[in-house]
Amino acid sequence: MGAYSIFKCTHCGTAQSCPKPSLKELADFYDSFLFRTSIENKPFVYKSAELLFSRLGLPANENKQMLDVGGGGGFYAKAFEDMKYGESTYVDLDPRACESAMKLGIKNIINADAGKYDFPISYDFIMCRHLIEHLINPNLFIMKLIHLLSPNGQLLLICPNGESLEYLAYPKSLLGRLLKIYKSNSWG
């Protein structure tokens, strides 16, 4: 991806490549890069999930339906269930991520492209974390998620922030990630 530059917002720290890469270029770039997680991160993510769900005002013990789109290791979906918010459905394109979610004990796992999958139900809470920035047409994808919401449902889109302390929870992959990003820039 040497023909691309990464631009970072000086206000929020969010980064974006320019121009947008093709689907093939994205697949090549993210080969063996999509899934990096460890059970060691579970306490950190559970604490993050507890704060997040609380700030969103999600009521516990109401048997809500959650859709975790591009859920990585599955910790947020599992935390949703363990904290008694309801039942989660986990969907991810990466089969290794789905295997990890299965090991956590998540029952509803879909190994598919969420943009192409026909979901049979609506959801009270949809979480899409660190995913939309990778899509060629995020607007179309967001509209699909909105249509999957139940009445009064909540959609949470989280984009990565290069200055986030969250990256400290993944020290083993942080250096490799930074090097890959650095080399993909025009100065690398």
From TrEMBL:
<dbReference type="InterPro" id="IPR029063">
    <property type="entry name" value="SAM-dependent_MTases_sf"/>
</dbReference>
<protein>
    <recommendedName>
        <fullName>Methyltransferase type 11 domain-containing protein</fullName>
    </recommendedName>
</protein>
<dbReference type="Pfam" id="PF13489">
    <property type="entry name" value="Methyltransf_23"/>
</dbReference>
